Amino acid sequence: VQLVESGGGMVQPGGSLRLSCAASGFTFSSYDMMWVRQAPGKGPEWVSAINSGGRYAYYGKSVKGRFTISRDNAKNTLYLQMNSLKPEDTALYYCARVSFALPDYWGQGTQVTVSS
User: Fold this and answer.
1) Which end of the chain is more exposed for a tag (fewer CB within 10 A), N or C?
2) How far apart are CA 19 and CA 88, in angstroms?
3) Is residue 77 within 8 Å of residue 23, measured between CB atoms?
4) What tens digit of pLDDT does each residue of 81-105 get?
């Protein structure tokens, strides 16, 4: 199993970024997926999840209405569109495969920094 995130970077408050997570080594379309972030000095925070077929999406309270999770099963890729970014969104963002409602494989993370 391999998960590789990309798309992070530095952006000003109010800006947007789109994260991608390229999956390989397993049948991507059979698994729910999630995004988790970790800010400096803080514990992991669940951000969003999506079911295997892409029909159902769930969001943490802090990002609901600003972030959109999606997936392209033909491309084995998970996405996170982040709009109206705030400084408190600064974190290392990880994608993870979900098995029995828990993340079992993680990527290496991509850094998102929101600063003016």
Assistant:
1) C
2) 17
3) yes
4) 999 999 999 999 999 999 999 999 9
Give DSSP secondary structure letters for 44-101: EEEEEEE-TTS--EEE-TTTTTTEEEEEETTTTEEEEEE-S--GGG-EEEEEEEEETT
Q: Which two tokens stand for residue 41?
A: 């000095």
Do 4 and 110 touch, CB atoms closer than 8 A? no
Angle at 82 between CA 12 and CA 115, to 5 degrees: 20
Instruction: Tell how far CA 101 is from the center of its chain.
Output: 16
Exposed/middle/buried for residue 22 (C-beta within 10 Å: 0-12, 13-18, 19+): middle
Question: Which distant-in-sequence residues (6+ apart) come within 8 Å of 91 by Cβ?
Answer: 37, 38, 39, 40, 42, 45, 111, 112
| Rounded CA separation 79/95 (Å) | 9
Q: For residue 39, give the DSSP letter.
A: -
Distance CA 33, CA 28 (A): 9
CB atoms within 10 A of CB 44: 15
